[in-house]
Amino acid sequence: MAYQTFRQEYLQVPPVTRAYTTACVLTTAAVQLELITPFQLYFNPELIFKNFQVWRLITNYLFFGPVGFNFLFNMIFLYRYCRMLEEGSFRGRTADFVFMFLFGGLLMTLFGLFVNLVFLGQAFTIMLVYVWSRRNPYVRMNFFGLLIFQAPFLPWVLMGFSLLLGNSIIVDLLGIAVGHIYFFLEDVFPNQPGGGRLLRTPSVLKAIFDTPEDDPNYNPLPEDRPGGFPWGEGQRLGG
Q1: pLDDT in tens, 159-172
Q2: Spacing of C-alpha 162 from chain mean position
Q3: Quick check: 56 and 18 in contact, CB under 8 A?
Q4: Residues near 126 by Cβ (< 8 Å), separated by ≥ 6?
Q5: Beta strand pairing call for 147-150 and 139-143
Q6: Which of 180, 160, 178, 157 has the alpha carbon at shortest distance from 169?
Q7: For 206, what's the count of Cα atoms within 13 Å in the CB-facing half-sphere?
Q8: Which H helix or E strand runs over 108?
Q9: Model confidence over 32-41: pLDDT tens digits?
């Protein structure tokens, strides 16, 4: 019975969120079990381009460190905001969501050539948080029950939290920069005088991922959204 309940809940998670979070958890489990080591996963341009270890372009986004507070914190935020994006502004647009992953990952990898980062998964999570926060500007956030602010400030609050923990803020700045570039090209520039849509999802992705949507206008209520954790919990103004 417990297995069936878990399986049912698992299959209700949107496909992109389910695939990415599962890959992250399985990668971490493989490292914990010493089936693989982080040295086989990290981002190393020399090994990628000279030794053709191209899997590193993907695996560096899948490992968030050993199981502990930092891993759980990142997994909660990754799952929560990836799912809210997929069930919110990307509902019925799986191909566009996959394209955002590809665009963000490519841009982050290019930036990664110039900064000393070996794993980019945390920066990718910040990118997802940034895009969600800009698309939900009127949602009020409650961070650990200590701070109340509106959603667009969330990435900067997380950066401050990283600073308090003694972590490098380069990771956060990279995620914010890539998230802002995507948000500007997708949401801002097309609505400017003389602007236009520069990011277009390839038709091959649409053919693979998009399926007819029963209710394209569906927008989940705040209480129906994933999570239930106090970290970054939002509430709409006037709701």
Answers
A1: 998 888 777 889 99
A2: 17
A3: no
A4: 155, 158, 159, 171, 172, 174, 175, 176, 179
A5: antiparallel
A6: 160
A7: 5
A8: helix 94-112
A9: 999 999 999 9
Cα→Cα distances 139→66, 142, 232, Å = 33, 10, 10
- CA distances to 123, 141, 149, 170, 223 from 167, in Å: 12, 23, 23, 9, 33
The amino acid sitting at 215 is D
Q: Which residues contact 139 (CB under 8 A, 6 or more apart)?
A: 150, 151, 222, 234, 235, 236, 237
Compute how many other C-beta atoms are within 10 angstroms of the C-beta atom of residue 6.
10
Residue 149: which H helix or E strand, with range? Answer: strand 147-150
Q: Which two tokens stand for residue 112?
A: 């990664």
Fold of 1-209: Rhomboid-like fold (1.20.1540)
225 pLDDT more than 70: no
Rounded to an integer, what distance in angstroms lies between the CA atom of residue 123 and that of residue 11?
Answer: 27
Task: In whole angstroms, give the CA distance from residue 157 to residue 126.
Answer: 11
pTM: 0.84
Residue with tokens 């948000």: 183
Go through 117-154 and write b for each residue having 16 or more CB atoms within 10 A of its CB, e for each that does not.
bebbbbbbbbbbbbbbbbbbeebebebeeeeeeebbeb
**Helix 69-87 with 15-32: angle, nearest 10 deg:** 160
What does the domain layout of the chain look like in residue ranges? 1-209
- Give the Cα separation of 10 and 12 in Å (integer): 5
Strand order in the sheet with 231-236: 147-150, 139-143, 231-236
Does the structure show a pLDDT above 50 at 230? no
